[in-house]
Amino acid sequence: MKTKYLDVILVVAFLTTVASAFSYTWTQSSSGWGTLSLSADGRIVCACPSTAGKIQISSDWGQTWVIATNAPPGGSLNGGVALSANGSQIVACLYSNVHLVYLSTNYGANWDQTDLPAISPYFSYYRVACSADGTKLVAGAPAGPIYFSTNRGINWTTSSVPHTNWVSFASSGDGTRFVGAANGGRVYFSTNFGADWATNNLPAQSWTSVCISADGQSIGASGTNTYISRNAGTTWATNNFSGQIACSADGSTWMIAASQVYTSNDGGLTWATNLASGNYNGAISADGCEIMVANGFGGGIMTGRVVQHPQLATQTANGSAAISWLLPSTNFVLQQTADLSNPAWTPVATSPTLNFTNLNQQVFVPTNGSNAFFRLTTK
Q1: Quick check: 115 pLDDT over 50?
Q2: Do the beta carbons of residue 25 and residue 305 sit within 8 Å?
Q3: What is the pLDDT of residue 7?
Q4: Which CATH class is domain 4-13+309-378?
């Protein structure tokens, strides 16, 4: 069985691998369709149907699916569902005579209705977004305000932004920064958890989708044209693509899903075309190595994957070293050895924790003056 390694010499040097270009291999999912949202590692997938029907959830990267029988019916389009980084919390706009926002904190097993007001008719529904830990949320609907919550949707407050036709929201990793778009209006930005919003230099147009990296520095907005910023919206580059936009946690990998699926692994400078013509919406994992797209109304789900090359980083402080890597969409194990001439690799005893600010896995190990070598491996 093939094994992939990435070795790092602690503090002294790094051995890194960089993929020169992403070439996705696409496979058909066994089931599922609708508006998609992924956990950060891509393992948990939520497919919210665009018409009447129940949410479907996969816990194995889309290989098998279960119907969330305790959930109300579906009925949301793009932007109507969002997941926390670990996939345990789901916020979704669902339809049963009227549109309401529901929350699940146990991977879709049970659902609670929020106290956000009901909206109708059928085509008017909430767009939602949440922070990586699921504590910060925003929700907005056409011709309405933006509501925000800082306690997992228990309480909601109306923001200061004017009422307008909200079509998409996205959150940075820690929920400090949100970006929202209004169809036929402007793109708005919040730097205080959704309480206050301001526009910038982007023009008014028919916006359809926005995204933001974990650190809030990379921002994408798609409408008549697509705009991408790598400096928190100070300057923008544009192209003539249009569709649902998404980016990896570090802003290096991008996807635009429309009549075809366009991907970029150089920050949006160059693009590749994927799949035959269709009507796609989709989502991307934190590392950008997994893309999942749904094709139209009941057209099925396709998953695109590339070989991963995660890179280790290290930082020392207070007698310990923090070893980190961007949360991968395949299970990697951190191993260590004291000698590279005759290595005896063993798993690091400390389990990694997820940093919700940058979506990096982190392990803290003591520094005792001895050599220490680390690698990531998967089989």
Answers
A1: yes
A2: yes
A3: 36
A4: mainly beta
Q: How confident is the model at residue 19 (pLDDT cuts 50, 70, 90)?
A: very low
Question: What is 26-305's CATH number?
Answer: 2.130.10.10
> What pTM did the predictor assign?
0.91
Hey, what are 148's tokens? 């925000």
Please give the average per-residue pLDDT across 359-363, as a whole number. Answer: 96
pLDDT score, position 75: 63
Four-residue CA torsion sign, 354, 357, 358, 362: negative
Q: Where are the domains of the chain?
A: 4-13+309-378, 26-305
